[in-house]
Specification:
Helices cover about 30% and strands about 25% of the residues. It is built from 6 helices and 12 strands. It is globular.
Length: about 190
């Protein structure tokens, strides 16, 4: 049976320096099953994608973060890259946007360095997840159980390691969105401090 997400609205939160395939492939996978996908960024206009360390394409921002409301969306995707999650984790509006999804129990998916944002939002403590291997200590230090697997799902939280995992990542994202809301992700943990 083919999944139909035509009644779902998914946010992709990204800033300059995102890994292009980690935004583009889930976006296309979601569109193929009918989801409405919106790119949100702290900056309006266009954001710069990367192919590892090389500049790639620019993507139009659909809604500036200041104008985005988590209640308008059913799920959130956080692409990786290096600069993108580093910028987002230092932006309080971005962190609050992520926390709102977690508090509402809406699916959140993060790949590569994207879990840096989850750490800053205080939602990895007590959760099983994966990421780009170089940030596994960051995840463990924030109370997460880091594992080296292509895709990990923990009550609506979907994580993957790298672009090679995108097929499995996108499939699990679609599955979790189809399942709908989960219990609040913040009920098992609290922000550091």
């Amino acid at each position: 049976m083919k999944t139909d997400l035509s009644d779902k609205h998914v946010a992709i939160l990204a800033a300059d320096g995102f890994e292009q395939s980690e935004l583009e492939e889930p976006l296309h996978a979601l569109e193929r099953v009918g989801a409405n996908v919106t790119i949100i960024s702290p900056h309006g206009g266009r954001i710069q994608g990367m192919h590892h360390l090389e500049m790639a394409d620019e993507f139009d921002v659909d809604i500036p973060l200041k104008s985005a409301h988590s209640e308008d969306f059913d799920a959130l995707i956080l692409p990786g890259g290096l600069a993108n999650p580093d910028e987002l984790r230092s932006n309080e509006d971005a962190i609050e946007f992520v926390r709102e999804f977690a508090e509402a129990g809406k699916p959140i998916a993060a790949i590569c360095h994207g879990p840096w944002i989850l750490i800053e939002a205080g939602i990895v403590n007590g959760r099983r997840l994966t990421s780009w291997p170089s940030i596994q200590s960051d995840i463990r230090n924030a109370g997460g159980d880091w594992v080296d697997e292509p895709v990990v799902v923990d009550h609506g939280l979907v994580t993957s390691r790298k672009p090679d995992d995108l097929k499995a990542f996108s499939a699990k994202v679609i599955e979790e969105i189809a399942e709908g809301h989960h219990f609040s992700m913040t009920s098992r943990s609290s922000p550091a401090g």
